[in-house]
Write a structure and sequence with these properties.
This protein is of the alpha+beta class. Helices cover about 20% and strands about 10% of the residues. It contains four helices and four strands, in the order αββααββα. A hairpin with a 5-residue loop joins β3 and β4. The longest helix is centred in the first third of the chain and has 9 residues. It is globular. Bound molecules: zinc ion.
């Protein structure tokens, strides 16, 4: 049991999708910190991911079902882990986008 790590991991772990691993970005995070088999951080670049135009994802449909059609999602270019924006990041980018209500609108029933 590694009690020390669990708390930090927990804050970074939003509800998972059936076919995608989902994490929350740390403030200012630009590279994937998902660990590979050898325990090294992946380091892949996190890119904004437009899943409604992604052929594979259109078939999968997980993301759109869970978050709607225009949620802000980032994806690691290597391991394809999905990253949700950190709410605190909004305060860093003062570019002024008033979109906050994406979550909570179309939450699907919890599957177990
Ligand atoms: Zn990665």
């Amino acid at each position: 049991m590694v009690t020390g790590e669990i708390t930090t991991e927990a804050t970074q772990t939003p509800p998972q999708l059936p076919h995608h691993k989902v994490k929350t970005k740390k403030v200012g995070q630009r590279a994937c910190n998902e660990k590979n088999d050898k325990g090294k951080a992946c380091g892949g670049h996190l890119k904004r991911w437009f899943y409604t135009t992604d052929v594979l994802e259109i078939e999968c449909g997980d993301v759109e079902k869970a978050w709607g059609r225009d949620a802000e999602v980032y994806r690691c270019e290597y391991c394809q882990t999905l990253y949700l924006p950190n709410p605190a990041d909004d305060k860093v980018n003062v570019a002024g986008r008033g979109l906050k209500s994406v979550f909570g609108l179309t939450l699907p029933p919890k599957e177990k």
